[in-house]
Design brief:
Layout (H helix, E strand, L loop, with lengths): L4 E7 L5 H9 L3 E5 L6 E8 L5 E6 L11 H11 L9 E7 L3 H12 L5 E6 L4 H4 L1 E3 L1 H8 L3 E3 L8 H9 L17 H7 L5 H16 L15 H26 E3 L3 H13 L4 H42 L4 H18 L2 H17 L1 H13 L9 H6 L4 H6 L7 H10 L9 H11 L4 E2 L2 E2 H27 L20 H35 L3 H5 L1 H8 L7 H14 L2 H13 L6 H9 L6 H11 L8 H7 L12 H13 L4 H11 L3 H25 L1
Parallel strand pairs: 1-4, 1-5, 5-6, 6-8
Antiparallel strand pairs: 2-3, 3-4, 7-9, 10-11
Length: about 700
């Protein structure tokens, strides 16, 4: 970042740190991964009052610098390694107004690293409502810093924070707590010849090295102390810091019970109730899926028609030839087959973001812990599983917050059963083809079907977890701690950024794959071996001409004959015997095989296959509705075939990226290969059984 000021934004989870980050950076931000690590890295640029720019890095949430999870280790690494490119010139610790005591532990640790540190107290807009008063002058004096009182939701106090960041050189580097007091004799020898700051860095490194040893006693000295003695010193350090914090909070922080606090408690009792809590969660999900269908139908129809008109315009405007056919019959239908689902995917991310921002998702985590424990999991597994509704890849990475290896492995293995956004286009097009657009008791039948598929994914995940918990012979030691953040109105800016980023990521990620596959499929469908393909026109005219047949009928017959004898037709007919028991023809087989690269390719593949030589004025949905089996004359996409396809995509693992991330997280090919074999085999059997029973 050149000579820009490096600012590390750090804090406990659920303090509004990301909201502060969004207020500072706006749209000048990007998301990636730390080098060689699958932990998300968010960074952005902030313009300071004097016109200079600051490089803001949003570090993963952590409760202290005594890191154990991968996310916490990343945050600690940035603060400990002065040679790191992200090493901060100033650290900004974000705290929640209602949980200062817990947040201050992290602050006092960072102060010992000799980094200029600003203390930000967020959610200041609720102070009056919560009966909270703070002695800012006292806190600044005792913490040796400057305090910014902000409300990220309302955007207040952000300008003052920017000014404090700009003036970071005036901040005191004095520590709040003398950590060496826990054992002066040991630390005198331990830190001989180095500064107090270097001694604390060394101490944090030691405690991290011993964290994974689970208190084992080796009988040997480790930095002059046995492991159990070092852990005892670490506990004493925490006690020493809280002794300082408790005294400070008692003098400078007052909180009186109010009706607002009582209101939150009453609401929590309802939302986390052992009966009503699940009913409310179910009703919210029902509302979400009804909204996805009812609100998105108009923009979807508009997008479908726009891409159809675009393909027709290209076909009529560009000179006839291979390039025109590639664009109008390959690229445009392939990309259009995914873009049409952007409204529904955007609505899904909108609802998820609203639930997370409001604080309700944390209640769901707590609520589901009661069920999770019966399946060998705990409440923390809900976060990856809920995240799996967007994409399995970040969801699997989110399992790093689960401390127990057995619970983490089970969560990794079952997460692909959760319906992700890549399955959504497949579900939506098949449901539209085989489920009537009717209402039952005021509820849209198609929306109910979509919700049923999501529920089916969760049920299958839980059943798999139950089996794995019995099969995997591993010791499990589970503890679950859930934080209940305050309820708050979702910040429109945060929600909008989440929806735009997630939707764009889906479209760009899927678009790259679909564009490449569409070109390959178009070539395979537009060319073929032998005389049957080359002489298709003369063969069809001589064998299939019927009195009264229109020119358009003849063109359609010729296109169908050429497609059947093209390269892609040959491949499709070769695999057709394997998929016939499931109710699929060779065209569906091609889409099925190509979608193993990514599930959403299924719709793009069918859009490309059905567009080659077809009527440009017909939408992809209409082409699929009109598709008939030449042998039986029945519709290809009937109810039995539709249910079979829905079940296949509900259970099959059709995502190479998911397999790769499972291999990376488990450090073995054993688990992803077992996933692929079991899920694909089960999907085949379930789909075949459904089709045979329904026909």
């Amino acid at each position: 970042m050149g000579n820009q000021l490096n600012v590390a934004l750090i804090g406990n989870p659920n303090t509004g740190k990301t909201s502060v980050f969004n207020q500072l950076t706006g749209l000048n931000q990007k998301v990636g991964n730390y080098p060689g690590i699958t932990v998300e890295k968010k960074e952005g640029l902030c313009r300071l009052p004097d016109g200079s720019r600051a490089h803001i890095i949003d570090l993963p949430g952590t409760y202290s610098l005594n890191s154990t999870s991968p996310d916490e280790i990343v945050a600690t690494n940035v603060l400990l390694n002065s040679k790191d490119e992200d090493y901060p010139d100033v650290a900004v610790v974000v705290a929640d107004i209602e949980n200062l005591k817990r947040n201050l532990l992290l602050y006092t640790q960072i102060k010992d690293l000799n980094i200029p540190t600003i203390f930000v107290i967020n959610m200041a807009d609720v102070m009056t409502r919560k009966g909270i008063s703070i002695d800012i002058d006292l806190l600044e004096r005792e913490l040796h810093t400057k305090i910014a009182l902000v409300s990220a939701r309302k955007g207040t106090g952000i300008d003052n924070l920017k000014q404090l960041i700009q003036d970071y050189n005036s901040l005191s580097l004095m520590s709040c707590v003398k950590f060496t007091d826990i054992d002066p004799h040991y630390f005198k020898t331990f830190g001989e010849g180095i500064s107090l700051e270097q001694a604390y860095r060394k101490w944090l490194t030691i405690t991290r090295e011993t964290a994974d040893m689970n208190g084992e006693e080796t009988g040997e000295a480790f930095y002059g102390k046995r492991i159990t003695e070092l852990k005892r010193l670490q506990q004493k350090e925490t006690i020493l810091r809280y002794h300082f914090i408790n005294k400070l909070i008692k003098e400078g922080y007052k909180k009186e019970l109010s009706k607002a606090t009582d209101w939150r408690s009453r609401l929590d009792r309802i939302l986390t109730h052992r009966i009503f809590g699940y009913i409310i969660f179910f009703m919210i999900l029902l509302l979400v899926f009804q909204g996805i269908y009812n609100w998105s139908s108009y923009p979807m129809d508009l997008i479908d028609r726009l891409f159809t008109d675009l393909a027709e315009w290209v076909n009529n405007t560009m000179p006839p030839g291979a390039l025109t056919d590639l664009v109008s019959e390959g690229i445009i239908p392939g990309i259009g087959g995914i873009v049409i689902f952007v409204p529904q995917i955007a609505f899904l991310f909108l609802f998820i973001s609203l639930l997370e921002e409001s604080g309700y998702m944390s209640r769901v985590v707590f609520l589901m812990d009661r069920i999770m424990r019966r399946f060998g999991l705990n409440g923390k597994s809900v976060v990856p599983l809920i995240s799996g509704t967007a994409c399995a890849i970040p969801a699997i990475m989110a399992t790093r917050s689960i401390d127990d290896w057995k619970e983490r492995l089970i969560t990794i293995l079952i997460t692909p059963f959760i319906t992700c956004s890549a399955r959504l286009p497949v579900y939506l097009i098949i449901i539209a083809l085989v489920i009537p657009d009717q209402t039952v008791m005021g509820l849209n039948l198609q929306g109910l079907t979509l919700m049923g598929l999501y529920v089916l994914g969760f049920v299958m995940a839980f059943l798999s977890a139950l089996i794995l918990n019995k099969v995997l012979k591993m010791k499990a030691r589970s503890f679950f701690i859930a934080e209940m953040p305050a309820y708050k109105l979702p910040l429109a800016k945060n929600v909008a950024l989440t929806v735009v980023e997630k939707t764009r990521s889906f479209v760009v990620g899927a678009g790259k794959i679909i564009l490449a596959i569409s070109i390959v499929l178009w070539f395979l469908a537009s060319n073929g071996p032998g005389n049957d393909f080359k002489n298709a026109e003369s063969i069809v005219k001589s064998e299939q001409y019927l009195p009264g047949q229109t020119e358009q009928d003849m063109k359609t017959a010729i296109a169908a004959y050429k497609l059947q004898h093209s390269y892609i037709g040959k491949i499709g007919h070769a695999i057709e015997p394997v998929i016939r028991p499931l109710g699929y023809d060779w065209k569906i087989g091609i889409a099925l095989i190509s979608s193993f690269a990514a599930r959403e390719v299924f719709v793009g593949t069918l859009a490309t296959v059905y567009s080659v030589g077809s009527d440009e004025e017909s939408t992809i949905k209409n082409r699929m509705i009109q598709e008939t089996d030449p042998e039986t004359g029945k519709k290809v996409f009937n109810f039995a075939t539709g249910v079979s396809l829905l079940l296949f995509y509900a259970f099959a693992l059709q995502c190479m990226s998911t397999l790769a991330i499972v291999k990376r997280e488990t450090n073995s090919w054993k688990w992803p290969l077992l996933q692929l074999i079991f899920m694909s085999g089960f999907a085949y059997l379930a789909s075949m059984s459904a089709y045979q029973l329904l026909t």
